[in-house]
Amino acid sequence: MLLQRLVEYGDRIAGELPAEFYREKQIHWVLDIAADGSGMKLRSHKVSGRQRDQAVSMPVPYVQRSGTKVPPYLLVDTAEFVLGVPKKAKDGSVTEKDRDEAWRRHDAYRDFVRRWASSADEPEAKAAEVFFSAGRAGLELPDEVEAKDTVAVMVGTRWLHELDSVKQLWAEEVRARKGGAAERTGLCLVCGEHRALLATIPEPVKKGAVPTAGGSNEGQLISINAPAQGRAGMTQLVNTPVCHRCGGRAMAVLNHLVASERHRRRFRDDGVLLWWTRKPDPDSVLAMFFDDQPEATDIEHLIDSMNKTPSPAAAQRTDTDAFYSLSLGLNNARLVVRDWIEVPLAEAKKNLAAWYADHGVWDGWTRRTRYFPLWQMALSCGRWQGERYAPDSAPHGLEAELLHSALHHLSPPARALPLLLQRIHADRRVDAPRLALLRLLLTRSSNPQDRLMPQLDKDSEDPAYLCGRLFAVLEAVQEAALPDINTTLRDKYFSAAVAAPGITLRRLFTDAGAHFKRLRRDRVAAHKALEKRLFEIYSKVSDDLPGHLTDVQQGRFIIGYAHQRHDDILQRQAAKERKQAAIPAQQDAPAQEPAAV
Predict the structure, then answer these.
(1) 181: Cα separation from own chain's centroid
(2) Ramachandran assignment for 428, one of left (phi > 0), alpha (psi -120 to 50 degrees), beta (any other)
(3) Please, what is the angle between helix 164-178 and helix 96-119, to 10°?
(4) If you average pLDDT over every residue of the chain, what do you get?
(5) How far apart, in whole angstroms, are the C-alpha atoms of residue 242 and residue 184?
(6) Of 412, 434, 411, 432, whose CA–CA distance to 422 is shortest?
(7) 122-125 contacts: CB < 8 A, separation 24 or more?
(8) 317: pLDDT strictly greater than 60
(9) pLDDT tens-digit readout, 541-595
């Protein structure tokens, strides 16, 4: 199914893909042959790391090759093949064995080029035939030419590897190499047609395209090298019949997707997610979801559109578009398919809308619901460093697990809640990303009591939620009475109150009497408002203050605390606005005449 979807997508974007069995590579040197083949110039295109934007890169012939007697590519290859440059040891010396191997590879390269040139009709082919028939290169080359450098060949203004005759011969050569010693034909599992079959997949995924914690290698999607790996002891693709066209097209599409900024999401620890749709011009909702900083207005529009009931005419129309998602990891030189999703596009959009609706948190300062990207929610389980989260401190694999939860509309991984609580206790910090992840964890719980609203719920009777609100009011009482205090209640008692609210909150409630005494003397209005708020919450929970809270109850405590804090901000902003609105009204009022005596 996966290979079929890749080939279907490849047929749709055929114009964006390179020629068959071609891959994008950086060109380091250009061998510019004279029009009559009598001479050449070697031009450098090597650039430093700071000048990567100036590098020359283009699709060139490529196929995976291995073994001791590796065959050449057609025209574009390493300097060892094209120019006979031998490999050097670390001290710069060259062994006799490496020199002989370089000449062997150079001779094989020349024979391959002459085979193409003798059957091609282009005038550039004749120049290449004359040049490479003159014998071994034997040229004085610059010292900076290395055996691994990529060398392309030009005649005049034409790149020889871009000629149609080169593409045709190279495709035939790859089919011969990858078809195995004995030509096999049969029914292809991908296209369902009777064609010549591959013995091995011709092209791996590019090196470095799939992030990994270990060494970066090229990765094969299908690889059966040992009898123990295959059915009935068969190796290679004997039990996985794939024709040449489908195998080459599927891997070309895979490399196209991993190189696309729009259709790729690289995880910060390891792995990559690729996505595409059946129809062209995919919906902007998908691009928004995989963006690092999605716009809140776009998210709100998505949620609203999913909540609206479609009209009868719209409901009768069938949307045949589909959403495909592929999560890949890398184990040595083999790709690991971690997740494969194939759902209708409308269902995918519905799942993404639910993801945002389930984690949105109300911000009292901006008076809007805030939403967060995947990477930020995963990083919120990392270590706080005073001004930001420590890079690479997020738990390994958590971002990929959250992505799986979003696309499948499932509960987040069970390990996320204890990890998040551990960091909140250690850092004593409850910010918006952590609150969003906490709300998501509770909203997707199997217990309906855990599905909390994005802002303050004054009707909630949950003891853990009320304990969080109570702690927030006690903290507000201290801030109002002692605005310049260095160590607040949150600094000293937050972790204790979250874990064991019964003892801690009763003690803090008793100690608040001293703060109310100061407020009664200095700030009468604040004293009345805070005292009313405190006793209103305490009366609901005083007879049932829990001694200890479970992880889920601690999550409700923290959300109740954050909701009350944001509601306090709203109350202060509203009072300030009422005060500012009253000042111009008093200034505009007409002065009254003194009463008559």
Answers:
(1) 41
(2) left
(3) 120
(4) 85
(5) 10
(6) 434
(7) 122/163, 122/165, 123/35, 124/155, 124/156, 124/158, 124/160, 124/163, 125/160, 125/163, 125/165
(8) no
(9) 887 888 899 999 999 999 999 988 888 888 877 777 777 877 665 555 554 444 3
